[in-house]
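Re: uridine-diphosphate-N-acetylglucosamine structure - here you go.
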Amino acid sequence: MDKLLIRGGRRLKGEIAISGAKNAALPILCASLLTPDTLVLENVPELRDIGTTLCLLERLGVKYRNGGGHRVELDASQVDSIEAPYDLVKTMRASILVLGPLLARFGEARVSLPGGCAIGQRPVDQHIKGLAAMGAEIRIEHGYVVARARRLKGTTMRTDMVTVTGTENLMMAAVLAEGRSVLENAAREPEVVDLAELLIKMGAHIEGHGTDRIIIDGVERLHGATHHIAPDRIEAGTFLCAVGAAGGDIVLRHTAAHAMGAILDKLREAGVEIEEGGDWIRARMRRRPRATSFRTLEYPGFPTDMQAQLMALDTLAEGTSVIVENIFENRYMHAPELSRMGAQIEVEGDTAVVTGVASLSGATVMATDLRASASLVIAGLAAQGETIVDRIYHLDRGYERMEEKLCALGADIQRLSGNAP
Ligand code: UD1
């Protein structure tokens, strides 16, 4: 298993490009199932989760061509299976995103239930409830969601909580349903908006995306389209936390600062000097970070996917921060690993209290999820001495060539291949 070796204490300096958003690309790839025509996607990040999704789509009969340069063409004219098997779904929960499109276009779907994951239970009951409200007949059979509907019928649906992939699944189902669907309590995340914009290019009638009430008038057929995936705000936020912790002066290109309000506010509070243009962000850090307290919330609040990275910054801050994780029940697994590097963190239930220390010391650490791994890399960049981050396959799921980008910023970071000691 690959590891990262980081020699900490170097300031970051330089310019890098941010990749397309993983969480926008995943539902958008699944949206290819909604049309027999070709979908051309640009700015698709090269990530393990994208590979897994393409593999799943291929098993369903979707043909794809990876044109290089982050361009992928998908053709779902010959879909010959409606089953998303357990072996793929268990490695990536977002596989549930094929449920809505398969059911909407083919009237049938069999998708393995994802089960719990490292950061919490993460049920998909809201996806199922919404599809049932649209008239689907749904059974749970041998660990699979088995859904049938001759044609889904538009209706008003209200999810019990705000769910990102739930909103996406129901939106993809509703675009081909008969009549009007209204999604109340919908997720407002930029990735939901990006998916809606793609669906509109494919001929869907959608209004209100980006608000908590999305109105969809179903159509009989969608057609092909070309779409450029929006920038990854979490990847950009991760590099900003890295410069906040290690110090330096960096420029991020291909970003969308307008979608990062809560993240940029917190970094400014921490003392990072930020300038932003239409598609770039410059961040300078010339001081010890100030402690920043925050609670994770649905968009436009502070994202749970940035909690671990900002906590890494807080471990080095002047003062004490109080962090409340509202979205997932078990998302502090990075805390004991950061503590092994000298951080002072106390976790009780959904709250973490971080007392900043003057410096961290390098150690061998490992994480059990994607963003937790990123927080350990940030800590390693700022720590004294060597840090080894183990099990970086988590990082490869969601960050495109992270170590190369950090090297370009002057970090001393190196990938050790699986067999290295
Ligand atoms: C998506 C993101 C993930 C991010 C999360 C929250 C993708 C591929 N993943 O995950 O990176 O951390 O949003 O911003 O976009 N819930 C239920 N029942 C449901 C659905 C959700 O109880 O049917 C609960 C979840 O357990 C969680 C909360 O609702 O506590 C929010 O989850 P949700 O927004 O659905 O997360 P994901 O879409 O899985």
